[in-house]
Amino acid sequence: MMELAQPHLNRATVHNKNTGKLENAEYRVSKTAWLDDDMTEDKGRIVRRINRRMEDATELSHDYAELDQVNNYGMAGQYEPHYDMKTLRDIKVQKLGPSEAGNRVATLLIYLQEPVDGGATIFTDGGARLLPKKNAAVFWYNLLPNGDPDLLTRHAGCPVLAGTKWVMNKWFHVNDQIFTRPCDLQQFKREKEAKLYNGQYTT
């Protein structure tokens, strides 16, 4: 995935809350590439195989998921505290992905390469600190079962102090998850789903 991403890397962008447009920001220092499963020949087959594995691991439908985003964090690369989902339930949520995809219900973060030092993922309000480990993955729900944003998912990528960190994000959207994660009326119910798939971290 790193090799596939390298020719397509560009400076990471963020959505401007006021204009809705993509722009560079000082609080996100990295390079990113988006990998499509429609890529030609072997490249597309690799991406499709990875997508199937992510779908199996999370039990979430891939139909309304975003493309695989590969991120390269060099020296001092970091991402200040942020949410992956929209925190306001309004029409802007629909613009996050495919038409009528809805908000980002869950995030799967895979560490492709660990840095020599630094680069931890921290949940500023949830009290978790995860050190990057190659081939490990972290999964969490961004929305509560009733569809409201889970504000404990605010997280950050700490600065890389030495070496290089590579990660891949997969964002699943709420649409088409009705049978895998049905709506629940308990507003503050949280499922203990976050885990490192190498077995070193669970909640």
Tell me the number of helical segments per DSSP (H or I, 4 or more residues long).
Answer: 2
Task: Tell me the helix content.
Answer: 10-25%
CATH topology: Jelly Rolls
Mean pLDDT score? 83
State the fourth-level CATH superfamily.
q2cbj1_9rhob like domain
Summarize the biggest pleated sheet: 7 strands, antiparallel
Radius of gyration: 16 Å
- Beta content comes to 25-35%
Weakly predicted, low-confidence segments: 193-203
Q: What is the architecture at the second tier of CATH?
A: Sandwich
**Global structural class:** mainly beta
Tell me the total number of β-strands.
Answer: 16
Widest sheet, order of strands: 1-5-6-15-8-12-16
Distance between the termini: 28 Å
Shape: globular
| Strand and helix order | HEEEEEHEEEEEEEEEEE
Our count of domains comes out at: 1
CATH top level class name: Mainly Beta
What keyword list fits this structure?
seven-stranded antiparallel sheet, mainly beta, 203 residues, five-stranded antiparallel sheet, Jelly Rolls, single chain, 11% helix, globular
Helices and strands, with pairings:
Elements: H1 2-5, E1 10-11, E2 14-15, E3 22-23, E4 28-29, E5 31-35, H2 41-58, E6 68-73, E7 78-82, E8 104-113, E9 117-118, E10 121-123, E11 128-130, E12 137-141, E13 155-157, E14 160-162, E15 165-173, E16 195-196
Antiparallel strand pairs: 1-5, 2-3, 4-7, 5-6, 6-15, 7-13, 8-12, 8-15, 9-14, 10-11, 10-13, 12-16
